[in-house]
Specification:
There is one protein chain. The chain has 574 residues and is α/β, with parallel strands linked by helices. It is 26% helix and 27% strand. It contains 15 helices and 29 strands. It is elongated.
């Protein structure tokens, strides 16, 4: 059965995910995914791996919750729906995605994208939407049938056929697909009955086909199901006749759960096969509303779990490509503006949108350190400077550590401190910009008291401020760029604050970036290698790992290129 959400079923509390509370949904995301089944979670993982900020909004009522296992999913055959979703949620979290338990009621377009309104009144802002709300099964009005759905009342031979093989099976005729269903299930059992119920009269050709395959036809309306010891034992006709059966095949009418999409002007389309209604989209899942994608059963009514997951991947990749195209167009406009403007002193590269940078710039042939005024103005220039995602190198390192005390230097708008605190760290965030710290404080307040109580924010000039020695179990400095003497002094200061057994993580732009077309200012004295950072550490006191991992970015001309980060990870010996 498909892994999408059925809004008509009761919420499955056993599958309730760890989530951000409603009051924490104040920041803007690259993508909001509405629906947390196979399609939605798969799309979220794809987008998270593409370094996009993603939130998954899910009401926690999966359509296939009653099923014992998922089938037809290579390497996951037989896994319970709850376990599959739980594993997928962990993968979303691993790549920085946010999981929120809630029901999306409506969506509206804004100048910057979309706002999604939840049932509790909270609002999520996102640049793009991926809607994977699945479908609703409209079942025949037969007493006892809905309670058996997904157990011994089934619909898909590839999902359930093996489990009911060689048993007495009935096919409930409700439409033109009844004969097709009967011929399919004949592959799994020789004891098969087609109940004509409300299906159209058989043609001569269909009657001959059923007879040739030894499929018995029972005329008359079905009245109810006989259940003994929580097991289907028979199908009762309106005249009182009971036909012994252990499973009943029912092709429900499949209707896309499109309430949120309807608020954006998208209506369902009748499926030409006569099985229900779906939301139309192109091959990538893009709907008629720009910026809105769909995936899974909401647009592919007969998709199985693996098919829905595949659709989520395809939609996620298409959304990322669309965002890249938008960002590239903006970069080109900015590039043209810079080239036509009068020459003036400009700050050093602001870097990729995922990272916080503290740089110096060259003016009148001298290196001038950035002041608080400079950085306050930098942050005031936009509603948000960075992506809102935790820095990936920090995520990779901290995920392996036991949460304790952490120092985030140059904390910016607070993504790293919130991410660390949400995982149990007691975090101190320090930055020179009061504007950035005010935004960080808003993020901290939004995530709730339990996480906020683990965070302290502090305004300080890193050139004069010194943390307490041997105080922190993790010290992180992401993309801080200063002239070499000041930078080395800062690194020594930060190293001194690491406790025995603690970790120092320093990440920056590698000098090799100047050989690429990324567009960084020609200021090699501000860049560094991990080996240069390591040089300030005594190897007798530290276990040192210095690397330069590559990553792909889009340059100002819109080309995909490879650059490198300088990454120093050092553990103080006990």
């Amino acid at each position: 059965m498909a892994q999408e959400q059925n809004q008509n079923q009761e919420q499955n509390q056993d599958q309730e995910q760890a989530h951000v509370p409603a009051e924490g949904l104040t920041r803007r995301f690259d993508v909001a995914v509405i629906g947390g089944g196979a399609a939605g979670l798969s799309g979220a993982v794809t987008l998270g791996r593409a370094r996009r900020s993603v939130i998954v909004i899910d009401a926690g009522a999966p359509r296939n919750a009653p099923a014992e296992g998922v089938h037809g999913f290579l390497s996951r055959d037989g896994i319970s729906p709850a376990e599959l979703v739980d594993t997928a949620r962990k993968e979303v979290d691993q790549y920085g995605g946010v999981l929120h338990h809630g029901e999306a009621r409506s969506a509206r377009r804004t100048p910057d994208g979309f706002e999604v309104v939840l049932a509790d009144g909270s609002v999520v802002a996102a640049r793009r939407l991926l809607v994977t709300t699945g479908l609703v099964d409209e079942l025949p009005d037969i007493p006892g049938l809905p309670q058996r759905w997904g157990r011994d009342v089934i619909h898909c031979p590839y999902c359930h056929g093996w489990e009911v093989r060689d048993q007495p099976i009935g096919i409930l005729g409700t439409g033109p697909w009844a004969v097709h269903q009967a011929l399919l299930f004949r592959q799994w059992t020789s004891d098969l009955v087609l109940f004509t119920h409300t299906a159209p009269p058989l043609t001569d050709e269909q009657a001959e086909q059923l007879a040739a395959r030894d499929i018995r036809v029972v005329a008359g309306a079905v009245d109810s199901l006989d259940i003994v010891d929580d097991q289907l034992t028979g199908v009762r006709l309106a005249d009182g006749t009971v036909v012994a059966r252990r499973a009943l095949v029912v092709l429900s009418r499949l209707v896309a759960s499109s309430g949120v999409l309807a608020t954006l002007g998208l209506q369902t389309t009748a499926d030409p096969r006569g099985v229900g209604e779906f939301v139309a989209a192109d091959a990538t899942g893009l709907t008629e509303v720009p910026g809105v994608w769909v995936a899974g059963n909401v647009t592919d009514l007969l998709a199985q779990v693996v098919t829905a997951a595949s659709g989520g991947v395809l939609a996620g990749a298409a959304i990322n490509a669309d965002l890249i195209a938008e960002e590239t167009a903006r970069a080109v406009d900015a590039h043209r503006s810079r080239n036509t403007a009068e020459p003036k002193a400009t700050p050093a590269d602001a870097g990729p949108p995922r990272h916080r940078h503290h740089h110096a710039h060259k003016q009148a042939d001298e290196v001038v350190l950035f002041t608080q005024e400079f950085w306050d103005e930098r942050y005031r220039s936009a509603d948000r400077i960075w992506s809102g995602n935790a820095n990936p190198h920090l995520v990779d390192v901290a995920a392996e550590l036991v949460p304790a005390t952490a120092l985030d230097v140059g904390c910016g708008e607070g993504a790293d401190v919130v991410w660390l605190a949400s995982r149990g760290w007691q975090v101190t965030g320090v930055d020179i910009s009061q504007v950035a710290l005010d935004r960080a404080a808003a993020q901290v307040a939004a995530v709730g008291a339990e996480i906020a109580d683990r965070i302290t924010l502090e305004q300080a000039d890193l050139l004069s401020w010194k943390p307490d020695p041997l105080r922190y179990d993790l010290v992180s400095a992401q993309f801080i760029h200063l002239p070499r003497p000041e930078l080395e002094a800062l690194h020594r200061c930060l190293a001194a604050s690491v406790r025995p057994g603690g970790t120092l993580l320093v990440v920056g732009h590698h000098p090799s970036d100047l050989e690429t077309t990324i567009g960084r200012p020609n200021l090699p004295e501000l860049m560094f290698t991990a080996e240069q950072v390591a040089a300030v550490l005594d190897p007798r006191d530290w276990e040192i790992e210095a690397t330069a991992p590559p990553r792909q970015v889009v340059d100002p001309e819109g080309r995909l290129i490879t650059i490198r980060d300088a990454v120093l990870r050092a553990v103080r010996r006990r």
